[in-house]
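call fold target=Nuclear export factor GLE1
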Amino acid sequence: MSKHVFKRAGVLAATVGITGLLSAGIASAHVTANVYGPQPEKGGYGSIFFRVPNEEKDAGTIKVEVAVKPEYALSSVRTKPIPGWKAEVVKSKLPTPVTTASGTQITEAVTKVSWTAEPGTKIAAGSTEFQEFQISAGQFPTNVDALEFPATQTYENGKVVDWNQPTPASGEEPEHPAPSVKLAEKSGDGHGGGHGSDAKTSEESHASSSSDNTARWLGGAGLVVGALGLGVGAGATLRARRATAAAATKNTEGTK
């Protein structure tokens, strides 16, 4: 009887531990801008992945918009096709021409990129799914240390969530932070020098990073379950020894 109780306790504890890990990840979910592989360099090109999780219990995400600040003067932004999503890149005339690191004068630049779900497509309601939207862009500016991309997330019930709050100097994350990517100093080794090589490197690193993150999560969950199992097993062994000792003492007293 006691063995069954211990087993149930172990399963319950393991379930609670894993649920805690999952809940921690879900609670901190927000739209982020990510880089896989070499960090984009000032004056170069690179691939950026916008990760969009769904946070509405009863509604799915059907549109994502990312604003590109005119002062970045990004003359080239390309999107990677995603089945079921229609991408649009909007360019606007700059109030003042900007000269890039290569000496090219830019009078028109990308100011918005959006992805709209086609009928039957969405990031499913609940908090278990996300989608990543990739762009390959450049030339990046040389006078900023990071790129900030205010974003909006539209749900099928009409709700719109703005992810546009800058992170303060203290580093404390606001409630709805704007996705951002840090730029590395130009190294001259070719990183960020073109769309093709950069996109390939980013995608390969992305695949490796995703597999590695999954392996780490599973490994962490395994450690939690293993530790709980050891604790339950040790408790059961200790109780069994105590019961045996008590029985032996009782038999000895009976013999006397």
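return ok
The chain has a mean pLDDT of 77. The CA atoms of residues 167 and 173 lie 6 Å apart.
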